[in-house]
Design goal:
The chain is α/β, with parallel strands linked by helices and 763 residues long. Helix content is 59%, strand content 9%.
Length: 763
């Protein structure tokens, strides 16, 4: 300030209180004092749609999280893979039929499964392949207890964990036995852990796999398992056949003795009753005679019925349709000749009258044919009548003979009741004996045929490549897990990160427009000079362009342009409010406005350091002492830019900032300067910023991108609103160059027209 601009100190002290009250009343009646509706981020509308661009921005932003997790997973998996002992898998294919091949058409003694039991049958075979008895048989056959692979084998981690839950009873039983039983039990467990039974779907094939560090041993074990399984099936069939043969021999001896006794009794009784039999399988002579008469009578009755049917048809007058007439060639020839004559007569009738000689001759021939037909029909009637009478006579005679034979047979049957009883007993014993004898012979033959229902399709060969670990597969799985896990971790961190990241979220939170977006800058020049001044000296830098955009936005923030008294604050310290206040003041002064920069952060002042000025006298000297505004106002290297530093730090900043002298100072500054920019303290935890906001025309909130939490900012805005502070917008600072869309904006737009040889780094 010039000396001509210095106000009288006495007048100021006398008018401090009225001026402060008048300023507050005037601000409450202006548009700037009207509180704007504000909504917290918790009131934002939920959006269920997936923003792929936002996800991609998050991945790019947290690329090092993704890369680190990916590298850790890949290195861990590959290290574990290379440290694992190579395991080789030998495989063998078996074909299991429900029934063995029918070399002999004899039924075996083993039970045959029904068609519906196919699933149960094959499940039983698979469990037999995994049985401990078969495993112990292979172990003993190959002497695996002394093999180095099994002798030094330790249970796997999975097997150890599984044994804690399912193997306690078996271990308890083994402890009760001797050490040899414990050793066999552990050996069997180790054997079965490496054995895999894999049924081939929709087929009768099953694959047997065995895993071992020794490829030769793996192939030997798989082949031994198949041989042992086939031998067990054969032995089971042989054992069943041997038992059946012994049982049948005993029963045959018993039936043989009983059959001999019953045959002797039958012969003695027949001799005593004088019953004659044609043979053991034939009936008696009287019975045979009666059977012959019965057969003859039945035939005679059939003949009589047939003759009677023809006779009744004859009597009914319908002779033309009986078979004898239809099959009589003479009658058919007469009928054919008659038909020709009638046809000729009808044709001549068209020419001649019936009385014409030729017509009379034809009519006489027709009548002659009709007489011959009638004569032949009479002969047929006579033959049918004679045949019917003969059939009746024959039937009556056979009926008499049949009755006589029946009486004779009934008499024999009365005497043969006991004979028949003995005969049936003999037949039953003979049938049982023959059936058992036949079965005994079949079992003997079938038991000696070594046909099995299990066959080897492909024998196990020595594997050339290890089955596991599969380096390529593990690497692929690790890559997928590492990539998606890293992305998931990055998205989780992003979800847990509730800081303000972009202008859009900031606008939703503030309910006001974002006035500026400032990139994060790095030092790339003189290390002794303030970084903000170094960046502002380069008019083409993204930093300078950002604050020029902020200056332009401030010109349209209110109806009257840039507010006369503007406070710059933030939710917490370190967000760039002092830098923003200084950069904005410099840009306004460069535009030709007379600007006063007021450092009102009386707890941690920094403006004097940024400008390289002394801080021996400043705002606190005016508020707490007798200094005049002109005494504490200092010029800067920038034309039309003046600054009032904080001065010595006081013990009571809030009381000084809320005093009437502060209001008077702002009132005087508004009259002497085009714009007053107040570098205010942070909002949270302090009463300074709300007090300053109540006596300034407008407030701009500075927010650090990725550093300011949403709830902190919401709390800060709530405190400012409670003092009727007019917040016109926010400035998002420290935007990283690769931080999503904002980073692209600064890398492309702000670099447009820049130095082609290189530019200062902005990240």
């Amino acid at each position: 300030m010039d000396n001509t601009e210095k106000p009288d100190a006495g007048d100021e002290r006398g008018q401090e209180a009225p001026r402060r009250n008048a300023l507050i009343e005037r601000r409450e009646s202006t548009a700037l004092a009207r509180p704007t509706e504000w909504r917290s981020h918790v009131e934002e509308d939920d959006d269920d749609t997936i923003d792929l661009r936002a996800i991609w921005d998050t991945i790019v932003k947290r690329k090092w999280t993704v890369i680190t997790f990916f590298v850790i997973v890949m290195v861990s998996v590959l290290t574990a893979t290379f440290l694992m002992t190579p395991i080789y898998r030998a495989s063998l294919t078996l074909q299991i039929e429900r029934q063995e091949a029918k070399v002999l058409d004899y039924q075996g003694v083993t039970p045959n499964e029904m068609q519906g039991d196919t699933k149960d049958f094959y499940e039983t075979q698979y469990e037999l392949l995994k049985s401990r008895s078969l495993a112990q048989r292979v172990i003993d056959q190959l002497n695996l207890g002394d093999h180095p692979v099994f002798a030094a084998a330790n249970p796997s981690l999975l097997a150890s964990i599984k044994g804690l839950f399912v193997g306690e009873e078996e271990e308890a039983e083994a402890v009760e036995g001797d050490a040899e039983q414990i050793r066999k039990l552990k050996l069997t467990k180790a054997f079965l852990e490496n054995l895999t039974i894999e049924p081939v779907r929709n087929s009768r094939l099953v694959k047997i796999h065995f895993d071992s560090p020794d490829p030769v041993l793996a192939s030997r074990i798989v082949n031994a398992i198949s041989e042992a399984f086939i031998n067990v099936n054969l032995e089971r069939r042989m054992d069943a056949s041997s038992f059946a043969k012994v049982f049948l021999e005993e029963r045959l001896q018993q039936l043989k003795m009983k059959l001999g006794e019953t045959e002797k009794e039958l012969v003695a009784f027949a001799r005593e009753e004088q019953i004659v039999r044609g043979g053991e399988q034939e009936a008696s002579v009287d019975t045979q005679v009666m059977q012959e008469f019965t057969t003859a009578l039945a035939k005679a009755q059939q003949e009589r019925i047939r003759a009677e049917a023809m006779y009744q048809q004859l009597e009914s007058g319908s002779v033309e349709g009986i078979p004898q007439v239809l099959e009589n060639k003479v009658i058919q020839e007469f009928k054919g000749h008659k038909a020709k004559l009638e046809t000729e007569y009808q044709e001549n009738l068209k020419i001649y009258k019936p009385g014409y000689p030729k017509m009379v001759q034809l009519q006489s021939q027709i009548d002659e044919m009709q007489a011959k037909i009638a004569e032949e029909l009479a002969h047929v009637r006579s033959g049918i009548r004679s045949a019917y009478q003969a059939a009746r006579s024959q039937e009556a005679m056979l009926q008499v003979k049949m009755d006589e034979s029946k009486r004779t047979v009934l008499g024999v049957q009365d005497r043969s009741i006991q004979y028949n009883i003995l005969k049936r007993e003999v037949d039953t014993n003979r049938q049982l004996y023959d059936g058992l004898l036949q079965r005994y012979k079949e079992v003997g033959v079938a038991g000696g045929v070594g046909v099995n229902n299990v066959s080897v399709v492909d024998k196990a060969e020595v594997p050339l490549q290890p089955f596991k670990p599969k380096t390529l597969l593990n690497a692929l799985i690790a890559a997928l897990l590492g990539l998606f896990g890293g992305i998931g971790l990055a998205l989780l961190f992003e979800h847990l990160d509730d800081t303000i990241k972009d202008g859009e979220s900031m606008e939703r939170l503030l309910g006001l427009p974002v006035l500026g977006l400032v990139p994060l800058i790095k030092r790339a020049g003189d290390a002794t000079r303030e970084l903000v001044l170094e960046q502002l000296d380069d008019p083409r830098s993204g930093f300078s362009e950002a604050y020029r955009s902020l200056r332009t936005a401030m010109q349209f923030s209110t109806q009257d342009g840039i507010p006369k008294v503007l406070m710059v604050t933030s939710a917490s310290m370190g967000e760039g409010k002092s830098t923003t206040a200084l950069a904005l003041a410099i840009n306004l002064s460069q535009m030709g406005a007379k600007v006063l920069l007021l450092d009102a952060d009386l707890r941690k002042a920094s403006m004097h350091r940024k400008l390289g000025l002394a801080n021996t006298a400043g705002l606190t000297n005016y508020l707490a002492g007798d200094s005049r505004p002109v005494d504490v106002t200092q010029p800067t290297p920038y034309d039309k830019l003046f600054v009032i530093t904080s001065g010595p730090l006081p013990p009571n900043p809030a009381e000084l900032l809320g005093s009437a002298k502060m209001v008077a100072l702002l009132d005087v500054a508004k009259d002497r300067f085009d714009c007053v920019i107040v570098d205010g303290p942070p909002v949270l935890g302090l009463a300074d910023a709300p007090l300053l906001g109540s006596i300034t025309d407008a407030t701009v909130v500075v927010v650090e991108a990725g550093g300011t939490r949403k709830d902190f900012l919401a709390g800060a805005l709530k405190r400012l609103r409670s003092t009727r502070t007019h917040v016109i917008g926010g400035v998002l600072t420290k935007i990283a160059s690769r931080s999503g869309a904002q980073g692209y904006y600064y890398n492309s737009y702000y670099q447009y027209g820049g130095d082609t040889e290189g530019s200062r780094s902005a990240a």
